């Protein structure tokens, strides 16, 4: 519950990191929003609540729509209380002489680098050093499908315990961009596959891994039958 005190066992070998929904005051940690306390594999504790509006956090991946050009910046709607900003040089290969071709209405996949209550969020769309997110940048305007889902579902999709994409990869060829702001972009080999993938993702919110596998198998059979 909100304002409830949370206690952790901390040692020099077991550092704890606070995620969304938790706030440290002096030596105490308090819950700042209602929800379920959860922990990731790398000792990040957070409160999983059914919030409707996305609150940006550093290093989170987001999918947004370019709404306006402001000099060297672009304004991007990521579903937060404030629209985000991205500099034209925050794209791979961009220089002062080689500006990226970005238009209002383009779909963008980026990472939050600045998220403060008193400032507009800022994004970057360059690949990280490990190349973990090869899709960062502008997503193909004539391909794929962008849809909105709950923040709870997005957190489930990126959880190591969720086997949805492992199951889907056995039956379909596709690519996705999962935004922690509740925006998901999916692109299959054709329109029928893309629609089926969107159905599988949205249906996974209230399903177990076993139910997900059964549902995906039925979708795969239907798609192959249509083709």
Automatic annotation (TrEMBL):
Top-level division of the source organism's lineage: Eukaryota
Major site of localization recorded for this protein: cytoplasm
Single biological process term from Gene Ontology: rRNA processing
Keyword Disulfide bond applies: no
One Pfam family matching this protein: RRP40_S1
InterPro entries, A to Z: Exosome_RNA_bind1/RRP40/RRP4, KH_dom_type_1, KH_dom_type_1_sf, NA-bd_OB-fold, RRP40_KH-I, Rrp40_S1
Family, per entry: Belongs to the RRP40 family.
Protein name, as recorded: Ribosomal RNA-processing protein 40
């Amino acid at each position: 519950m909100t304002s409830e005190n949370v206690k952790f066992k901390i040692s020099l070998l077991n550092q704890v990191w606070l995620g969304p929904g938790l706030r440290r005051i002096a030596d105490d940690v308090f819950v700042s929003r209602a929800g379920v306390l959860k922990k990731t594999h790398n000792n990040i504790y957070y409160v999983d609540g059914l919030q409707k509006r996305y609150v940006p956090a550093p290093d989170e991946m987001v999918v947004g729509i370019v709404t306006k050009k402001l000099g060297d910046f672009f304004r991007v709607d990521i579903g937060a209380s404030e629209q985000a900003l991205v500099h034209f040089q925050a794209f791979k290969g961009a220089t002062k002489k080689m500006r990226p071709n970005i238009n209002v209405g383009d779909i963008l996949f980026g990472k939050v680098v600045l998220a403060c209550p008193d400032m507009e969020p800022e994004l970057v769309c360059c690949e990280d050093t490990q190349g973990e997110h090869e899709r960062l940048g502008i997503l193909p305007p004539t391909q794929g499908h962008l849809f909105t889902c709950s923040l709870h579902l997005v957190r489930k999709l990126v959880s190591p315990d969720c086997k949805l994409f492992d199951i889907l990869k056995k039956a379909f060829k596709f690519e996705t961009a999962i935004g922690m702001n509740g925006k998901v972009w999916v692109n299959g080999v054709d329109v029928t596959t893309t629609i089926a993938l969107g159905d599988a993702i949205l249906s996974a919110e209230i399903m177990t891994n076993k139910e997900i596998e059964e549902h995906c198998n039925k979708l795969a059979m239907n798609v192959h039958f249509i083709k």
